[in-house]
Predict the structure.
Amino acid sequence: MLKIEGINKRFGSNEACKGINLEVRKGECFYLLGPSGCGKSTLLSMIAGHLSPDSGDIILEGHSLLNMPPNKRPIHTIFQSYALFPHLTVFENVAFSLRIKGVVDLEERVLKKLDLVSLLEFKDRYPEELSGGQQQRVAIARAIIDEPSLLLLDEPFGALDTKLRKEMQLELKALQRSLGMTFICVTHDQEEALSLADRLAVMNSGSIEQLGTPENVYDSPATRFVASFIGESNILDGKVEGDKILLSNSISVPITKKFQSGEIRGVVIRPEWFELNDGVSVFSLTGEVISRLFQGASILYLIKTELGKIKVLVPVDDDLSPRQIGDSVVVRCTSGSFEVV
Ligand SMILES: Nc1ncnc2c1ncn2[C@@H]1O[C@H](COP(=O)(O)OP(=O)(O)O)[C@@H](O)[C@H]1O
Ligand SMILES: [Mg+2]
């Protein structure tokens, strides 16, 4: 439903967006994910119309948006702060834009939207009398009051602590599903993007490095940047030789992509693809535990090996005898296929 074609935007000599192409489908929750300063908000502002691209086009449902002022675009942006009016009730916050326009069936329309976001019983409260999740739902009800095609959310959970963030993420996802609306969200938090996005674009320095489902991007990172930015990963460098990469004199792994023999490439191995217990493996190596982090359901070990320091994630259930710092261990890689970057 939304097509972004060859968008460029520079601020002086700073190229904030470089040749961005992407398509967002109707009804999906699409994420722009990348580190601070990579151009996410700039791209969102161009979709909303607060900034104009230097070149390229933005097409919504078949029509270019470029000559349309922001308030005429069927698009709403929700900012981190929600920007609710503290002195107005929930009802009046949602009704605000309709009052300005002098709409006749105002009450009916506001109540319908409040019902959609399950806030009918809170309609007479003030924002400060609501939880963060409820405030976010007021902001969404207000944003969808005139039935936009697209909602843009810039760092929707930015300032919240971890526990509240998780709860609100679950709520937002459920709401997005039930509304069946198209959301484009921006975040630098890879966990948020992986858990909420139907599809996501990973951005770095103004460009999209990979676009796909969370599973695609996690399991098959296209670049070294994506592999290191998304989730924890080990990137082990080795020399390409035919259809193998030699990680050491005795350890090699099969590869499916074609590379020049002799090239140095990185093999991406997630910490959970290693094990410390006995069993079959694609390759194994000895090492020494140099650090460990208890993470509740699992333990993340850092192990010094001939291939460098390797992160190994072991579910607590499988960790029959948790290893201590200084222990010698055998690290086994259990994955059968490898992404090479
Ligand atoms: N109005 C502006 N004037 C000058 N530079 C800007 C402006 N807005 C953003 N930038 C620069 O463009 C780059 C991308 O910024 P932004 O899109 O805000 O990144 P993100 O949202 O991914 O953190 C940054 O280097 C930022 O400093
Ligand atoms: Mg930003």
